Amino acid sequence: MTAQPPALDWGQLGFGYLRTPWRYRSHWREGAWDSGVLTEDNQVHISEASAALHYGQQCFEGLKAYRTADGRVNLFRPDQNALRMQRSCARLLMPPVPTETFVGACKRVVRANLDFVPPYGTGGALYLRPFLIGVGDSIAVTSAPEFLFSVFAVPVGAYFKGGLSPMNFVTSGYDRAAPQGTGAAKVGGNYAASLLPGAEAKGHRFADCIYLDPATHTKIEEVGAANFFAITRDGRFVTPRSPSILPSITKYSLLHLAAERLGLEVEEGDVFIDRLDEYAEAGACGTAAVITPIGGIQHGEHFHVFHSETEVGPVTRRLYEELVGIQYGDRPAPEGWIVNVEGKEV
Ligand SMILES: *Cc1c(COP(=O)(O)O)cnc(C)c1O
């Protein structure tokens, strides 16, 4: 079931949907997940009354498979995505997918679409999109009678074509999540709420908007759909802590590397929007770009520049190189971070 080698221009790939041959599907009915299959059908046929369509009962994940210099293909911390999806499911009253099933499905999809994993050195990767949706015939506002779990794959290109470069952001007056709402769950509803603020920021030529804490609007929470971190002038790695932030796997990986490999003090705490002078560097982090260095932040009338609007700060660059080096297999990984897709299915 290997695909025809695709005629893709790896250097030109962006972040768009491109149909790959195989995807994983599993249904939950009458209290259990079925054994799951790979299918070539990229359309989902579901009831018009599906809870995912009306009440937003759904969640998703995003992770990448990387081609190494010696031709192997690795997933980066897929168990963490499995655990996070289980937490999203708990919040939205959906049946969790066991970690082994989740990781096994990701491996199967990568192996079935192996020719679509971009070559080493192109900066690309095979992006995996697991999702879980409430389906079946029910229009009542209750948990769906049935669920679908699927994983599909899309080859994506390097996020920064000309190398890492800073971007500017603007704070938003809107909230993406409520203080005790669903901000910490990776659910579509948060994204629906972010479309208008994101479009407004982009309309003013910012890369995206920054969300402040929904209770007081004084502290930084998220940068678009990425987490925020900053390096203080005395060299500490600081990232906000809040129940409405989506816990980024990239962020916690950077926090670990900052402490263990760069020897920095690390701290989860408050980042006040009117005290940005304390920080020498700042960045947004997530699977898509790993790190987007933050040049400046517009807040009301004030525009604050961190390290530079055009140059990447030294700590940001070291963190980026360390993490990307681990993902592509060039640098030693902390135990359990790299999962090879070959070998026995789990
Ligand atoms: C997925 C996501 C992130 C980034 O998480 P990673 O695990 O690092 O990819 C950050 N913020 C939001 C709102 C997200 O949905």
UniProtKB/TrEMBL annotation:
Its EC number is 2.6.1.42. Its cofactor is pyridoxal 5'-phosphate. The modification N6-(pyridoxal phosphate)lysine is found at residue 186. CDD domains: BCAT_beta_family (cd01557). It comes from the Bacteria. GO terms for molecular function: L-isoleucine-2-oxoglutarate transaminase activity; L-leucine-2-oxoglutarate transaminase activity; L-valine-2-oxoglutarate transaminase activity. One of its GO terms (biological process) is L-leucine biosynthetic process. The keyword Amino-acid biosynthesis applies. The keyword Amino-acid biosynthesis applies. It catalyses: L-isoleucine + 2-oxoglutarate = (S)-3-methyl-2-oxopentanoate + L-glutamate; L-leucine + 2-oxoglutarate = 4-methyl-2-oxopentanoate + L-glutamate; L-valine + 2-oxoglutarate = 3-methyl-2-oxobutanoate + L-glutamate. InterPro entries: Aminotrans_IV, Aminotrans_IV_CS, Aminotransferase-like, B_amino_transII, BCAT-like_C, BCAT-like_N, BCAT_family. Pfam families: Aminotran_4. Pathway: Amino-acid biosynthesis; L-valine biosynthesis; L-valine from pyruvate: step 4/4; Amino-acid biosynthesis; L-isoleucine biosynthesis; L-isoleucine from 2-oxobutanoate: step 4/4; Amino-acid biosynthesis; L-leucine biosynthesis; L-leucine from 3-methyl-2-oxobutanoate: step 4/4. Keywords: Amino-acid biosynthesis, Aminotransferase, Branched-chain amino acid biosynthesis, Pyridoxal phosphate, Transferase. Belongs to the class-IV pyridoxal-phosphate-dependent aminotransferase family. This is Branched-chain-amino-acid aminotransferase.
